[in-house]
Amino acid sequence: MLKTLRELRRRGILGINARNARYILPSNARKDYPAVDDKLQTKQIAAEAGLAVPELYGVIRSNYEIKRLPELLNGRDDFVIKPAQGSGGDGILVVASHSSDRFRLVSGEIMTLDEIGYHVHMILAGIYSLGGQGDKALLEYRVQFDPLFEKIAFQGVPDVRIIVYLGVPAMAMVRLPTRQSRGRANLHQGAVGAGIDIATGVTQSAVCNNRVVTEHPDTGNPVSGLQIPYWQEMLMLAARSQQLTNLCYQGIDIVLDRDKGPLILELNARPGLAIQIANQAGLKPRYDIIEAHAGTHEGDAARVAFARERFRAGRPII
Amino acid sequence: MKNTHAYILATVLAVIGTAIFFYKWVGLGLPLTPNESTETWQIESRISFRGRMGPIKVTIPTPVESGQYAVIDQIFVARDYGLSTQLEGVNRRTVFATRDAHGDQILYARFTVHKVPRGRNVSPTLESPDQPESSLAGARRLAAQAVLDAAKAKSADVTTLTLAILERFRRAGIDDSVDTLLARRSEPLEIARAAVEVMHLAGHPARVVSGVRLVPQARNVKFVHWIEVHIDDAWRSFSLKSNAPGIPEEYFPWWRGGASFIQSSMPGEVEATTTVARAAETTKWSGLVPVSFAERRVLDFSLLTLPLDTQQVYRVILMVPLGVLVLVLLRNVIGIVTFGTFMPVLIALAFRETTLLWGIVLFVVVVGAGLLVRVYLEYLKLLIVPRLACVLIAVILLMALLSLLTNKLGIDRGLSVALFPLVIITMTIERMSIIWDENGPAAAFKQGLGSLAVATVCYFAMSVQYVEHLLFFYPEILLVLMAFTVLLGRYSGYRLTELWRFRDLAKSAG
To answer: Are residues A97 and A190 in the same domain?
Structure first.
């Protein structure tokens, strides 16, 4: 056990206490949290800054508005319903197609309009939300994921998570839904996370249930060696995100839409630590470098260039 | 910067806490350990009633030195009341009187009782009591005569006669004459009164004695009753339950004659609850020895000056910070996941009353059955607040049912299920079923077991008698505990479970 401890420390693996005490609490002001905890606000802020987000079809704020669901859909066949303040991907329904009363989810499950209404009610009651207060339900565009991911994602939409510290992208991974995660891209629910080399945008090793894996558990296809398209654009979005929210430490989730390119899905003030297993690297050495060079880079592009130059996979951090 | 600040704060807290602790320990000689051999008790009655406009008088018996117990101190807390003593037969009664009582009235009477080694079953009398005359008439007199005749046949002297009479009273429900005498009431006080009547009929002086059992700690105690018979120039005690003369050692006689404890000008409206606690302090702290000014100041600020029932509440409350500290350690240093932040500590508090094993069994049964109800309600698609209310009602029904069942089976531990924090249990059920839905039964059980394990550890930490005593006498130790939590708040090392979580990273480095 002591050996493990020493080894983790040597590699600069960040634990949850250190993440909270040294990074999140000092860098992130409580007042800035609503901007990331409420996905509706995130969407509005991002849209104001001219960044691409999945299109919002409508917001349901109270129970009597549930009746307006068909009207809000306005003839669209597929859509996503999610709680504005959800955490860990809970409470998200992805509808692939529907007739007037029957809704087919991507998982193949069929729900009636009443059942959808009940689900929205649950969202409004705050059952999926941080802190359990009342919430809003968002109705939005269902991302058409890039065929690139077809072989290594099960049902859901993969997304790219980049952790940004002081405006510099520090570490990245692509999160691939599995059968166990029931189509959701959250690692703690069993999704696969494949580390991405910041320098090149190529996937490296991967993690599933906190263990290192090399293949997708459902499709059996290797998850490494994949070039993520629009990599530079994604890093630019990440570098930009700090100005949006004022949070110095955050995770940004980007989805790649077949037609619309990278879209900001959400921001996260408390990004998880499993990304370290996916990348087989510790976060702390990278944060140390970022801190050492804090304020020396002018503009997003400079910070991205700095990250691409320094954070190369398989190369020790200098 | 933040760390330095936290370290300074922790140091200051710890230094203040330890300094006060050492002053009280070394300087004033407060005991570090609960002194089990102290033969001093405090008996406290809390008298409450709702005053109506106008004068009121309430009296309670005043214990006097008797048998093996000496009353070394008495304190009355009764603002706006005049206190006086009134003699009533062999008893002294304390009289609380006021001209104008309105609103809720609470009076306290606290007696400190010290045990002196002396023969316990005999109270000598200076003068012989008068030959008693029986006041019985009619059917009751006949019944008493029948009891007396039957007992006489089985006895040789006054002592054996008394024992034989008491023996017959234990046959209430079988013996018709006993039932007539008791008028179908079989409370100890009624039995004692009837036995005294029979003794009077036989021409022997006898009287009812009422008192309390001096146990280490008891709230809301019931009075015990026994009788005294005048034999060979001394009053000798007889317990109602035993076949031999004498009473158990812990019986403390409070008043004699079988009158009720409270007598007032508003009969039936005045309530009294009595608390007994073994005084753990040394003689200095029990007021036997004069103390210096400084000592008096500290004593005045001590929790020992609170009413006894409040003291006992604080004995429990002061243990909560310890449980919370253990919880912080288990969550932030070990990394065990639990439902709700403080839920395990509250459950552990309930365990203190139920005992651990029963607590776990009852908890599992209530939560398990609650989960079944919740699964059924899930199917009905109820709105969330009504659903929570529904689960809460189901939990209360379940608990009542469990209490009834275990009571019928004669397992009195089952009754303590009522001490579980209802709302916490309901929220646990709700959280558990959501985690079940979202992350599968494995995750739900993992967190459920984690919570129970943490509750168990907290329970053990919170049930150390020694620590309870220490925290009660030295509440400043809480400052030291606070210092620890401040330090833990800046702990940024790995959690034990993270060594497991990141094990692949340590390995692959090779």
So the answer is: no
The domain total for chain A is: 2
Q: What is the pLDDT averaged over residues B138-163? A: 85
Check whether residue A119 and residue A169 sit in a common domain. no
Overall pTM > 0.90: no
Task: Note whether A8 contacts B502, CB cutoff 8 Å.
Answer: yes
Predicted local confidence at residue B9, as pLDDT:
92
Q: Are B135 and B258 in contact (CB under 8 A)?
A: no
The SS3 call for residue B293 is helix
Give the residue-averaged pLDDT of A151-167: 87
Residue at a domain's end among A77, A105, A140: A140
**CA-based end-to-end distance of chain A:** 28
pLDDT tens-digit series, residues B336-369 = 888 878 888 988 888 887 788 888 888 898 899 9
Residues A85-98, mean pLDDT to the nearest whole number: 83
B504 and chain A: CB distance < 8 Å anywhere? yes
| Structural domain for A290, as ranges | 2-51+146-310
For B67-82, the pLDDT digits (tens) are: 677 777 788 887 778 8
Please give the C-alpha separations between residue A265 and each of A39, A142, A183, A252, in angstroms, as whole numbers.
8, 11, 16, 8
Three-state DSSP class for residue A87: coil
A15 and B494 in contact by Cβ < 8 A?
yes
**Domain stop point among A111, A140, A169:** A140
Radius of gyration from C-alpha coordinates of chain A: 19
Residues A90 and A191 in one domain: no
Find, in chain B, the residue whose alpha carbon is nearest to that of A213: B504
Q: Indicate if A198 and A268 belong to the same structural domain.
A: yes
Residue A231's pLDDT is what?
Answer: 93
- Of the partner residues B434, B494, B499, the one whose CB lies closest to the CB of residue A127: B434
Establish if A317 belongs to a structural domain. Answer: no
